[in-house]
Amino acid sequence: MTQSEQDLDTYMAIACAVAVEEAKLMPTTPDIQRRAHVIAEAARDRIALQRREERAKRPSNIVSGAIRAAIMAMTPVHVLARLGELRTTHPEMQLAFRNFEHMSEDDLRSALEDIESLIERGA
Amino acid sequence: MKIMNDSPQKLWSTQFDKQLTDNLVERVLKQTTSLIKQVERDTPWRDQLGPDDRLNNIVMKLLDGKITWDPDRVNLEGLLFWAMSREITHEIRHAKTFPHVSVDDESRNQDRLEEETSAALTGQRESKREEPMEPCWSLFIGQMRVGAAGDVGVLAIIDAYTKRVTTRTEVMKLTSMSKAAYHAAYQRMVRIAKKLDPDVIATLNQAIA
């Protein structure tokens, strides 16, 4: 940094100090209020838009009713084995219904599809 | 299961919501207006945007992640005004004055225009060979030191600023000043800066123009 650049930074630091102090003495006119509101609203609109875009990018936790072919091809025994395996490898997983042995074949496959989908989505 | 993937930007957006009020924007608008006025008084720089557009641009840059903000270190008001002052500093630093020759006048002889342009550019190159003159901000700081007239507190703050130490906490730490001593010296410094004779500044600017 040259001496001139250093002096410029020093000058600006002093100028900022003066500006902050002078601003405290400035009256708040309806015009400033209106202009400030426009800027603040534009910022709020932008952040709301960004949040909507961010949400849209996130995968939804709603799973479709479709069951993949690999699961459809599994026998109930295999489905139960896979469910047991997933419960071991993902102990943090909270299942609302655990009595898989009494489920119908369709419900079993559907439950496995739901769990596999959620794991794949990292939810 | 829940994914914890909150980005730093998302974390500060909560703070942004809390701090971005109409009152805050009003304060920064006033600060910016005052800063522009002062820099225009002290230097040949002239604002081309206006405080509203400047502030709006800074806010949008912040939201687009082009300006980083750590809410734990600085509040939003301080950040916006700091970013604004950096932009103005950048503009002053990179402001160049070029010789102006009108090329819009179709009635003028083209050869004559080229001749004038060439002469103006040559003149500028010649002037660049001369000893560089002290920029107005350096002269301003010199005037500040004279105006401080041996005021140890004021000179200590200016010295801290020359070391790029500008926040109150950092200046107090560097200068070992108490909060009260710092506050009093800061107010005296502001008074001196405001009282610098506009005629003297105008003369300085003319001298370096």
Q: Give the low-confidence spans of chain A.
A: none
What is the 3D shape of chain A? elongated
Q: Report how far the terminal alpha carbons of chain B are from each other.
A: 67 Å
Quaternary structure state of the chains depicted: heterodimer
Order of helices and strands of chain A: HHHHH
Distance between the termini of chain A: 50 Å
Query: What is the typical, i.e. mean, pLDDT of chain A?
Result: 87
Structural class of chain B: mainly alpha
Question: How many distinct beta strands of chain B?
Answer: 0
Q: What labels describe this entry?
A:
heterodimer; A: 123 residues; mainly alpha; B: mainly alpha; disordered N terminus
Describe, in plain words, how this protein is organized in 3D.
- The complex is a heterodimer of chains A (123) and B (209).
- Chain A is mainly α.
- Chain A is 69% helix and 0% strand.
- Chain A contains five helices and no strands.
- In chain A, helix 4 runs parallel beside helix 5.
- The mean pLDDT of chain A is 87.
- With 209 residues, chain B is an all-alpha fold.
- Chain B contains ten helices and no strands.
- Chain B is flat and about 50 Å long.
